[in-house]
Amino acid sequence: xxxxxxxxxxxxxxxxxxxxxxxxxxxxxxxxxxxxxxxxxxxxxxxxxxxxxxxxxxxxxxxxxxxxxxxxxxxxxxxxxxxxxxxxxxxxxxxxxxxxxxxxxxxxxxxxxxxxxxxxxxxxxxxxxxxxxxxxxxxxxxxxxxxxxxxxxxxxxxxxxxxxxxxxxxxxxxxxxxxxxxxxxxxxxxxxxxxxxxxxxxxxxxxxxxxxxxxxxxxxxxxxxxxxxxxxxxxxxxxxxxxxxxxxxxxxxxxxxxxxxxxxxxxxxxxxxxxxxxxxxxxxxxxxxxxxxxxxxxxxxxxxxxxxxxxxxxxxxxxxxxxxxxxxxxxxxxxxxxxxxxxxxxxxxxxxxxxxxxxxxxxxxxxxxxxxxxxxxxxxxxxxxxxxxxxxxxxxxxxxxxxxxxxxxxxxxxxxxxxxxxxxxxxxxxxxxxxxxxxxxxxxxxxxxxxxxxxxxxxxxxxxxxxxxxx
Length: 471
Known about the structure:
With 471 residues, the chain is an all-alpha fold.
């Protein structure tokens, strides 16, 4: 190496903090490259770009210079120019780390900016390109690979369904940066996507005390894992650092309800109602919680008052109808549901609920069928709606129509006790006793909602007497 080259390399290391980059041709290229760095640092990006163009002219075979041009364009948000320059660099050296980094980040941003539920061909192509270039950049950088690149690559792996690769790269990133909150959240997402909720919970639980910001994400995985009381406690911690968050309050109340901690849910909802008197969801939840805690009168009173306070809020009116139905006040439930449908004629939930209510009562069955059919127009594969329609047909005596829809619902929700019970009743009506017993047994083994276990057991016992060698 000549004295001039050595001196310039030392200047690059000592004053710019960057490693020596080998250029193929002249010292002019080195000088202009360093000038570009200085000019950009001084706030003159146009001058820096001009210096890099001079460097490229002096050394036309240098991929490093074109990669630096691409990086400068990227920092200036000039995406088209960044892409063009990076590809020019890769045409000279496809392993160039900086050019691969620029292209990887460009295409990753395109993917992250997409809000499509089903990725378009363009988004899918951008995802594949982003992964390709980021993999090259991370591999080429080795142990010095930038954390942002590894993070972007891990997120893309999750989005593309390459869960094992996502876990691998994000685990390495977390090992290198154990307190990186976003990296841990991404790793937890990868584990959850791979159906390993225990690992997802552990990743976030390790830093919960030091980084309570992870509490909302941790609570989500605890809830999905059925750890409802733990999720409620975690959400309480999240509220300690964000006490005005309505969404966190709503989540905690909902988790407490799911955990059947009705008294705690009612108290939390009551407190939130005082803090946010303009929010109808809190009295809605308070009324439901009070009713389920056993104080039915208070629950109904809270909901009736909320309906008067928020007359245009159909969600509250719908919950009141549900509570009326649970209280055995079918006429009031029907009246409330018809009020919902007057305001929102296409409300699928209300259409289904009213249809099911009429079917259960064995009244106005033709209307019940029409109502649920209209709900299914909005959500054709909804198993709860299929069950309602099947049950309406069953009560009409149309066993073929009943079996078509009840069988579909039972297949979609094998652990739903109420649906399995309905299917068992249909099979028994057709004297398919062994199949009926199997369906009722699934009802007993399911979620336990909507059935009287003693009644189901009695039906099984009766059916066994009609099946030879049944046990």
